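Running this now, will post back.
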Amino acid sequence: MKKILLAALCFLLAACGSGKNDNVAETIPDTTAVPKQIYATELVSRGPIAIDSSVYVIYPLPHDRAQNDDDSGSFLSSDGGRSITFWNIVFYNTATKKYHLLAENKKMIINSYNTSYSGSEYSSDSSAPVHYFPDTSQEGNYIFYSIIAEDVNKDGKIDSKDPTYLFSSDREGNNLKQISPRGTNVNNWEVVKKSGMVLINTQRDSTINNKSYEAPVISYAYDLKKANGPERVFSTEFNMATDKLYKGLWPVKKDK
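Update: finished.
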């Protein structure tokens, strides 16, 4: 009887001992050499982010100098914090294992990259585009970007005092091009999918520098198929006729 009890006790102890290791994951050592420095591509705050149903994913590269560099993409958000901006984006082909940057030799601050084919949900004002975490863009064959890329006010840096332009690329991250007029700040935009037209509302860069939001809004249309450059939506003749009609219907009352 003692032998039976001893055997049963040994069995229970063995069972308990084996159970302790059931959920222990095997440790796989990192055999890569430890770098002497941290590289820019290792400072990835978001990603990998899949682009539609393709084999591509993106790794946005945050502008880590934003809080201590005067020449930076540091922007105050509506809650007083600093919104995340990016200085480039890596496109990675998971099938071929090849990768490339969105722009090889372009200094820029990427405020957002968008998938919804609409820029009406954000504001590009002089204090800073109010962004949470930007969304990816995958609809159709284009990705749209809100980018500051030119020192328009000639103060020796690119920042929120310079205009925000609208850029586009294909969904593989190639053929990056500016599609909004130079020297104008993009307020909002919309893509009409059936016609392939991008409608862009802008204001002159002086609006940014003077922090005045009463400057006239100029509407442009960009044809994604022709890619000839943005054109004004309304003609001068139409603007003059409409202005005359408005002033006639709603005359300014003179003070008595």
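The first strand starts at residue 49 and ends at 50. More later if anyone needs it.
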